[in-house]
Amino acid sequence: MSIWNGIIIGLSEIWAHKFRSVLTMLGIILGVSSLVAMSALVQGMENGMKEALVAMGGLEKIEIEPRDPDEMPLHQRHLADQAPGLRLSDVKALDSNGYLISELTPAVEMSRWGNDLTVTYQDKMTEPFFVSGTWPVSLELMEHTIDHGRMFNEIDNEEVRSVCVIGTGIRDQLFGDPTVTGEEVIPLGEVIVIQGQPFTIIGMFEHYDSQDGLKKRAAAIEAAKNNQDGTQIYKADRGRSNFAFRIKNNHILVPLNTMIMKFRSGTEENPVSDPRLSNLQMKIPSVELLNPALMQVRNVLLMTHNGIEDFSFRTQEDWAEGINTTINNARMSGGVIAAISLVVGGIGIMNIMLASISERVREIGIRKAIGATTATVFIQILIESIVIAIFGGIAGLGASYVLVQLIGSFSPDENKPVITLGAMILAFGFSVMVGALAGLYPAIKASVLHPIQALRYD
Amino acid sequence: MSLVELRDIRKSYQLGGETIHALDGVSLDVEEGEFLSIIGPSGSGKSTLMHILGCLDSPTSGTMQLDGTMIHNASQSQLAAIRNKKIGFVFQFFNLLPKLSVTQNVELPMIYGSVSSKERRERSMRALEMVGLENRAKHRPSQLSGGQQQRVAIARALVNDPKIIFADEPTGNLDSHTGEAILELFHELHRKGRTLALVTHDPEIAAVTPRKIEIRDGKIADQVDARLAGMDRG
Lengths: 458, 234
Description:
The complex is a heterodimer.
Chain A: H1 3-16, H2 18-55, E1 61-66, H3 88-97, E2 103-111, E3 119-121, E4 124-126, E5 130-134, H4 138-141, E6 146-149, H5 154-158, E7 163-166, H6 168-175, H7 178-181, E8 191-194, E9 197-205, H8 211-225, H9 243-249, E10 251-255, H10 256-264, E11 279-283, H11 290-304, E12 311-315, H12 317-359, H13 361-369, H14 374-410, H15 421-447, H16 451-456
Parallel strand pairs in A: 5-10, 7-9
Antiparallel strand pairs in A: 1-11, 1-12, 2-5, 2-11, 3-4, 3-8, 6-9, 7-10, 8-9
Helix pairs in contact in A: 1-14, 2-12, 2-14, 2-15, 3-11, 12-14, 12-15, 14-15
Chain B: E1 4-15, E2 18-30, E3 35-39, H1 46-53, E4 61-66, E5 69-70, H2 76-86, E6 87-90, H3 102-112, H4 117-130, H5 146-158, E7 164-168, H6 176-191, E8 196-200, H7 203-206, E9 211-216, E10 219-225, H8 226-233
Parallel strand pairs in B: 3-8, 3-9, 6-7, 7-8
Antiparallel strand pairs in B: 1-2, 1-4, 4-5, 9-10
C-alpha cells in the first residue's frame, strides 16, 4: 500500500466524520495559530525596540555623563568636592587624543524632568522633552534629519545667535498639527520663547515614527485635508507612538554657546556662571571598537580630571542586551504556552483515533484477512492522524493570519505583530509531529489486532 | 504434491485455565481444482480448521504446506502476504467496507498487493463481470441486495487470482433462492478450474460438493469423495 493510498483512506475517514474531525482539528488549529500569533507579537516587539534603538543612535553611540558623588569609587568619595565635572577642556582633550572617536559633541541640556521647561509662542505653550545646546555635528550624532530650513552652523555658534531647530512635536503644539488641520505648517523665521528667552526657528526636523506610524500619519493628514470641520480623526503621537520617537519629535537644538550664554551665565540670584556640561556625546566607527574606545576615553578623561572618576559611560549595548533578554524571555514563555496547547490538541487527536479504531475493529479485521500486514495497518492509522494534524495545521495558519490582523488593529504601531515564515514552518512542523506522536499509540493498538478476533468483533 | 497438505495439525487454546483442543490431529490433502466442503456442528473445530487453512491463524503443532511452501512456522507478515496472494475469503456477513464503493472494495486486495492503479481497474472490472455486477461498480455496498453484496465479496476473493478460495457459510445470511444462485456461482468457478473450500454446518449445502469432510470434536470424522465413491461402484 502506498503512502498516497493511505492519505486517500485517511481523507475519506475524515470526510465521513466531518464534525468530529473539525472538533479534533480545533485543538491543533488553536495551537498553531497561538504559536504563530505569539511569535508574530514577539517579532513586532523586537522590531519596535530595535527601531527605537537605531533612532537613538544605534550601538555605536556613547554618552558620557557626570557621575553622582555617591556612585564614585569608594576611595575617591572624599574627593567629590574636587571633581571638575565635564567641561569644554575635556572635549578639546578628546578631540586631539581620542582617535577612536569619529564624532564628538558637548551638550548642555535642559529637560522636562529637571525643572519646569516651557516653550511658548503667542498664547500657546508646550513642554519639550529636551532643549540641547550642542555643536552642529550633533545632527548626525543624534540621528536627526533636517526636513525644512537648516541646521545651525559654526558661525551661529561663534556669534552666539539665538536660533533653534525644532522637532515636529513642538511645531504640532505651537503652530498646529497637520493631522488635525490638514496642512503642514513650516514655522521658519517665527520666534519662540524658551524659558523666557526668544529664539528664531531656522530649521525643523522630519517627523520621526515607525514605518507603520508614518503611513498612518500620512493617511491621517490626507483625511484631515478632506475634512475641514476640525474633528480629529487620528490621535497622533500620544501614548501610541514609541517613547524614543516622541523624545526625538519633542526636541529643540540650539547652538552650545547660545545655550551657555543664555542659561548658564551668571544671573542676579546665581552670580557665578556654570561651565559644566550636561554630557558628551560621541560615536565610534564600529561596534567592535566599543571597548578600546571606552578605555581610551576613560584614560583621557582621568588625565583631565586629575584622576577623579566623576564621569560614567552610557552605551546602548546594555539596552540592546536588555532587548535580547526581553525578547528571548517572551519567546520562551509564549512558546511554552503555545506548545502546551498543541500537545493538548495532540491528545485530542489521540482520543479521536482511539475511538475511531475501536469503531473499526471489524474493518481492520477485514483488511488483515485480505492481506493487510501489521505495518500497513499501522501506517494507515498513523497517516490518518497526521492528515488530521496537517489539515489542522493549515487551518491554524489561516486562523493565525486573522488573529494577527486582530491583534495588530489594537497594538501600538511600532509593535505591530509580524508573521515570520520561520514561525509558520515551525508551528506547522510541530503540529505534524504532534499528529504523528498522537497517532502512534492508536496505530500500534490497531496494527496488533489479531485478524480472527477482529473479524468476530461486533 | 498436493496444493495443501496438513499433517497432524493440532490447535489448543487456554480458556479460563482450561486447555481446549480445537483441533486434535488433523491430516488432510487438498488437490488443485477440488471443490470440497468442511462440515460439522458449531464447536466442532471446523472454523478453526478453516482459519488455519486460510492462514488467518497458525497451528499449535503439526506441519502445513501450501503451494509448495511450508507455512506452519510463518510470521504474521508472511501469513498476510500469503493471504493476499494465494487465498480468497468469502464470509457469511460479506464483510465489505461500507464506506468504499463496489470497485474500491474489489480493488482492496490489489492495493495491499501493490498493483498499479490501471491494472487494478482492469482486473476489478473483469472480476465484477465474472460475478455479473459490472453495472454496479460505482454503488455502495449498502445500495445492493444481500446476494449482490456476496457476489462483490466473491469478486474481491477472485481478483488476486488465488490458489484457493475459502467460503465460510456463504449462504448463511441469504434466502434459499439467492443462496442457490451463489452456490451455482461456486460450481461455475469450480468448472473453470478454481479450488474452492466451503465451510458450513448445513448438510444440504455440503451435499452439492464433490468432496465432503466432516469434523467432529477436532478430528476428521468422515470423508466422502463422490469421485472415489463413483469409482467404487464402477
